[in-house]
Amino acid sequence: MPNPASEIPAAAPDLAVAHYAAKLAFETDCSDVHAAFAGAKVDFVLLDVRTPALFAQSHVPGAINLPHGKMTAHRMSEWSKDTLFVVYCAGPHCNGADKAAFRLAKLGLTAKLMIGGMTGWADEGLAFESAAVAAK
Hints:
There is one protein chain. The protein has 6 helices and 5 strands, in the order αβαβαβαβαβα. The chain has 136 residues and is of the alpha/beta class. The longest helix is centred in the N-terminal third of the chain and has 14 residues. The mean pLDDT is 93. This is Sulfurtransferase.
C-alpha cells in the first residue's frame, strides 16, 4: 500500500526537467541574488517593490525601490528593453512581487521573482541596508 508521499507517482525525468526549467525561468532565490552582488556578475536590476517607507527602514543591499504601481512604460523606458529585473517584496505572504513581475511582463520586459523576499533574505542570515535609494 503506497504512503501519502508516493501515492501519486513521480513525474518522468523528461517531464521533471521541463517543469523545473520553466519554474526556474520565473524565479531566483536570495542566495543566488546575494552571490551575484558578492562578486559574480550582476546582470540584472534588483527592485524592491514595497513602499518607500518600508524600503527606507530596511532593504536588500543593491536594491532600488520601485513599487509596482509606479512601473509605467515611461518609467521603465529608463532601462534597456533587454534588462532583466529581479523583484521582491515582504515575503511569501505578499504578492507585490508577483504584481510587479506581471506588470513588467505586460510592458514587454523580463522579470524574475526573488522567492522569499525580505523574509527569505532574513532566513538566510543575510544583511540588510537601511539608507534610502531612489529609483533612477
